Amino acid sequence: MKILLVGEYSRLHNSLKEGLLELGHKITLVGGGDDFKNFPVDIKLEKGFKSGFGKFLKLAIYKFSGIDIASVSLKNNFFTQNKKFEGFDVVQLINESSFSASPRVEKKIASFLKNNNKKLFLLSCGTDYTSVRYGYDKKFRYSIFDPYFNGKVSEKEFWHINKYLKPSYKRLHDYLFKIVNGVIASDLDYHIPLQGNPKYLGMIPNPINIDEIEFIDNKIEDKIIIFHGINRNNYYKKGNDIFEAALKIIIEKYTEKVEILTVENLPYSEYIKSYNRAHILLDQVLCYDQGYNALEAMAKGKVVFTGAEEEFENYYNLQKTVVINALPDAKLIAKDLEKLILNPARIVEIGKNARQFIENEHNYLKIAARYLEVWESN
After folding, report:
1. Binning pLDDT at 50, 70 and 90, where does residue 268 land?
2. Which residues 6+ apart lie within 8 Å of 64 measured at CB?
């Protein structure tokens, strides 16, 4: 099959591409690279006007005219190359806003892709109308909306989430759900809100290229190393403030037993290497399932603190601990860290369980085959 993957911001589409190529298919990946993360793509389409005078000009024009010149620039870039995006058997959008452009531009691009290719599918992977509506309505026990509801972030700081509830994004959502062949969720945080929707085709877990990620045995010779990677733009959304509060408790109590590694806003290629020395990785708090960073760290054999709620354990029918559920409570996280610090053998055990889980449930070749099955049957 000839397949076009549209958008990238977690490495999902890159890993899926690698699996599909191994299975003998022809793949093109188009996207912007997701700013500082700089994920590889075959065709790079960026919005531009991100800094300096260009950013000032963009904001000024938008304020006085309502026109987003960065989105217009991306649209023009896309349509000057439109022949590159025709004639595919399957096109998959990574999100309702695959290019982080204006709803009008996203709709025009999606319309072109629908009319010039055989099938169009949509991933629910990252914030979109359905998941944001579900969280805003407090249907989760806790969610990325908690910092917003609790006043940790302002309306302005949370615009990149709340925008999906605006009428223009709701219209984009409705349009996409009308034209696509179906919608696929990448994990339980998106699967749960979509249940019962007639366009929903089910969840396919994130693909992890286990051939490229080497398992690192947790040899603890001196201090236990805890890694905390911070994306400053999503500081409260990821629960980094809660992790930092938990680490403060641990440092005060176990200074001689632990070493803390903290990094911020690293490109993906640097980030994936930066925690190789670590035994424990603090990923995110306000979720029910693991995101991409957590899964790749689990593949390396790290003990990851992230979303692992009872819905996750039930879905996979887990009999062993493969990950630590990071609840939104610094004291509880500190207690879970303390248990590991006092029982290093448990770190070794969970690390091995984590790798086995990734091999069983997230193998990129198995996941690619599942995508093919869903695409071909819908």
Report:
1. confident
2. none
In whole angstroms, give the CA distance from residue 165 to residue 66.
18
How far is it, in rounded angstroms, from Cα 298 to Cα 316? 16
CB 103 within 8 A of CB 111: no
In three-state secondary structure terms, 281 is strand
Q: Are 131 and 286 in contact (CB under 8 A)?
A: no
Percentage of residues in the chain having pLDDT higher than 90: 78
Q: Which residue has the tokens 């999906």?
A: 164
CA–CA distance, 159 with 173 (Å, rounded to integer): 17
CA 320 to chain centroid: 25
Structure tokens at 119: 């099938």
Q: Which tokens go with 216?
A: 């690192």
Nearest to 128 by CA among 200, 64, 236, 46: 200
| Other Cβ atoms closer than 10 A to 126 | 19
Question: Is residue 191 a contact partner of residue 203, using CB atoms and an 8 Å limit?
Answer: yes
Which tokens sit at 282?
């603090």
Mean pLDDT of 174-191: 98
DSSP state, residue 256: T
| 56 confidence band (pLDDT: 50, 70, 90) | low
H-helix or E-strand spanning residue 127: none
Distances (CA, A) of 190 to 125, 186, 281, 305, 351: 7, 7, 23, 20, 26
Q: pLDDT digit string (tens) for 105-131?
A: 999 999 999 999 999 999 999 899 999
Quote the tokens at residue 129: 């109308």
State the CB neighbour count (10 A cutoff) for residue 35. 15
Q: Which residues contact 80 (CB under 8 A, 6 or more apart)?
A: none
> What is 136-201 written as a DSSP string?
HTT-SSS-TTHHHHTTSS-TTTTHHHHGGGSHHHHHHHHHHHHHSSEEEESSHHHHHHHTT-TTEE
Q: Which helix (H) or strand (E) holds 340?
A: helix 330-342
